[in-house]
Each structure stands twice: as C-alpha cells, then as structure tokens.
Amino acid sequence: DVTLQPTVNTSPTPTKVSIKPGDGIGGAVGMGFGINDKAPFSLAYEHIYFMATQQNGGSIPGSSLDSGNFDLGFAYQLTPRVGVNLGLAIGITKASPDTSLTLRVPIKFQVSE
Description:
Elements: E1 2-4, E2 15-17, E3 19-20, E4 24-34, E5 40-50, E6 54-55, E7 58-59, E8 65-77, E9 83-91, E10 99-104
Antiparallel strand pairs: 1-2, 3-6, 4-5, 5-8, 6-7, 8-9, 9-10
C-alpha cells in the first residue's frame, strides 16, 4: 500500500492505493563451443515476460513488457590465474536495451588454510 501525493491534475488530498508489481517469467537457451583449451565461444537467447502491475485489483494498461536478448560471448584464459570475458547482448524486443557490451577480468586468488 502506498499513498499518492496530489498533483496539479488530481484531487487536493493524498490517495491511498494498493500496488502489486507484476510477476515475471523467463527462460534462456544457449550453447558453448570450445575453440581450443583456452578460448570458448557461446551463443544464447534469453527472454523474460513481466505481467501487468495491479493497482487496487485492476491492471495498469501498458505496464507489462517483453524483454528478449541475443547473447554472444567469448572468453580467453590469459594465465592460470587471469582470464578475460567479453559479452555482447543485442536487444530483440522494444523493452530490451539495443546493445550491451560487458568486459570482465576474473582473477583467481588462492586462500591458504
């Protein structure tokens, strides 16, 4: 439950409403290819559907959305401790970002006992 503050186009008193964010359901499918012992390549598609948000028991029009991405990934193991991961996501639906580029450098640390 939230209290909406008045705006220019509404009544002058605050209004209490019940908001229930929409549930989401999603899935992904993909595959990876080993180019050699140090370099894998991956392809995937992921899709999430968010159902409409409810206000006082009724659906808010336009509050549901589909988000779908086609993902490409490449990794390379520089040393036994250091690797480089590069990911590119291409948005397929209107609700998805057009593109997303991610660079990660995972480093392994040995914790002695």
